[in-house]
Amino acid sequence: MFDNSENGVRLNKYIAHSGLCSRRTADEWIAAGKILVNDEVVHEMGFRVQRSDEVKYEGNVVLPVRKIYVLVNKPKDMITTTDDPEGRKTVMDLVAGATEERLYPVGRLDRNTTGLLLLTNDGELAQKMSHPSYEVNKIYHVTLDKPFSKNDLRTLLEGIELEDGAAKVDDAYYLDDIDKSQLAVRLHIGRNRIVRRLFEHLGYQVEKLDRVQYASLTKKTYCGASGDFYPIKK
Question: Could you report the per-residue pLDDT of 168-180, keeping only the tens digit for each?
Fold first, then answer.
């Protein structure tokens, strides 16, 4: 993180590298006087941290950590959370023992949805991949209970009014010339159960839902970010 220069690194970058939050949130903490450097409150946005400095947030020392990125192929019947009070399996079981760093899932997949999920301690990347303003693309392989009509395909592409507002996919197409129950759907909106609700609104049940692409990550991805990137676990 620190290079050979004497300039140090920006405070917000230093905090973000700890995995606590994104740089934007770090700026908010600095502005609110929540960050101490050598036991003194720092409000200056451009403040630069030196190797010998001690940074604290809420009384705890902040230390940059090695960034870890683990791409998993989430199976069915797993909860996308760090723990579950009911004792059900979570995606954290997939990475148990992979690293000593504490990881967090980026975004969510519902219990019955399979596919790509990223776990990381990189707070800044997590915000960019999760926040709606970044419009991250996701592609799903959808298997329906019956053939999907061309009229309904046009309706899906034009947009549908759901109970929580209008929803429009970016693209949708058949995956097989004969089996019209298999589709690919690309979208960037991230509302709860959005893919399933779109098809349910049109009178179809989603039997299988698999996320095959998340941002630039696909099921063939093994690297693509600075830091340690682990291969997909199936």
Answer: 999 999 998 899 9
CA distances (Å), origin 160, targets 23, 133, 206: 36, 21, 17
Cβ-proximal residues to 213 (8 Å cutoff; 6+ apart), any chain: 116, 137, 138, 139, 219
Residue written as tokens 């969510």?
A: 108
Cβ–Cβ < 8 Å for 179, 218: no
* Domains in the chain: boundaries: 9-62, 68-132+219-233, 137-214
137-214 and 68-132+219-233 share a CATH fold: yes
Its pTM stands at 0.72
Distance in angstroms (rounded) separating the CA atoms of residues 74 and 116: 6
Fold classification of 68-132+219-233 is Alpha-Beta Plaits (3.30.70)
Distance CA 18, CA 123 (A): 8
| Contact criterion met (CB below 8 Å) for 30 and 11 | yes
What's the CATH architecture for 9-62?
Answer: Roll (3.10)
Mapping DSSP to helix (H, G, I), strand (E, B) and coil, where does residue 171 land?
strand
The residues annotated with a catalytic role in the active site are 110
**What does the pLDDT look like over 122-154, one tens digit per residue?**
877 888 888 777 889 999 999 999 999 999 999
Q: Give the domain 137-214 fold.
A: Alpha-Beta Plaits (3.30.70)
